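Here is the promised in-class demo. Please do not try to memorize the tokens; focus on the logic of going from shape to residues.
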């Protein structure tokens, strides 16, 4: 598991206390809140993209076939024909989720070979 960063959420009372001097301009309070929200979204997005690149998802043939809405035998045929990337360890087939998505998006099919 990756390092989890704490997310600080301010209450309305804290915002008002922080921005008491800015009460003459209500837009400054909205601007401050927007900046906090943007910061939180960037942290969340940054954590997701970092964890995805660091920890690739691997699927066994059962899950890969289900993901592709096909049968295990059809997937084995694609492997045998070299139509799809795979990894073989201890006699078992594994597929990177990103490779399956790339294959789907490429428009490849059994009919094209």
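The designed amino acids, position by position:
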């Amino acid at each position: 598991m990756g390092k989890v960063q704490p997310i600080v959420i301010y209450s309305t009372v804290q915002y008002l206390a922080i921005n008491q001097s800015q009460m003459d301009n209500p837009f400054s309070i909205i601007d401050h809140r927007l900046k906090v929200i943007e910061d939180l979204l960037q942290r969340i997005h940054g954590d997701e993209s970092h964890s995805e690149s660091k920890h690739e998802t691997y699927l066994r043939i059962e899950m890969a076939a289900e993901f592709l809405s096909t049968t295990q035998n059809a997937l084995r045929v694609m492997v045998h024909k070299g139509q799809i990337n795979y990894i073989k360890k201890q006699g078992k087939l594994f597929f990177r989720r990103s490779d399956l998505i790339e294959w789907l998006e490429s428009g490849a099919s059994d009919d094209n070979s």
